[in-house]
Amino acid sequence: MTYVVERTFRTLDSRFSRLWSAHEAYLHALSARGTLIGGGPWDGEGGEILLIDAPDEISLHRALRPDPLVRESLVAQSRIRNWNVAYGRPGFTGGAAQSPPPAAAALTPHERRIAHLVLAGHTNKDIAGRLGVSCRAVEQHLTRTYRKLSIQRRAQLAPALGAALPAALAPARQQEQLTA
Fold it and tell me: What is the pTM of this model?
C-alpha cells in the first residue's frame, strides 16, 4: 500500500535544527530500503509530506517511529491517508517516473503487494502475518500472479516484473561481487 503522510512540526527551535540532519539521514535510509518513495518539506519548513510504501498502517507506524524528530516529540501532527494510485505512473526510480511492465499491470493491487513482499525476501508465512491472511491465501495469490506473468516459480518473479533481484535472493551475484 502507498500512504501519504503529512506532518507538521511542533517548533523550529535549536533541538529541531540539531536533529534535522539525523532526520534526513533516517529518511535516506528508509528510501534505500524501498519504504520511502519520496517526500520533502513544504515551503516555510513547517512540515513535510512523505510517500511511504508499507503493507499496512501498523508497519507504516513502525517504520516512522525511529525517526529522530518523532523520538524527540517534535512532530506536532501526522495525517495519514491511504493513497490508491489510479492515474499516472505509480513506480518511481531515482526521481524519474517509471511504468510497470505490461504483465505487472494485469496484477491486482493485492497481488502486487504480495509480489513486492516476495521480492523483499519475505516467506509466505511472513507475508501472511504482515497482511493478516492465511498462508493458503498468500499461496493462492502467488499462484494467480505466476499464471498471469506466465512464470512457474519465485525466482522468475523479479525478471517478470522488470525488477532487480534483491541481493538476499541472489547469492551467486553476491559471490561474484565479493571475489571481484
Answer: 0.50
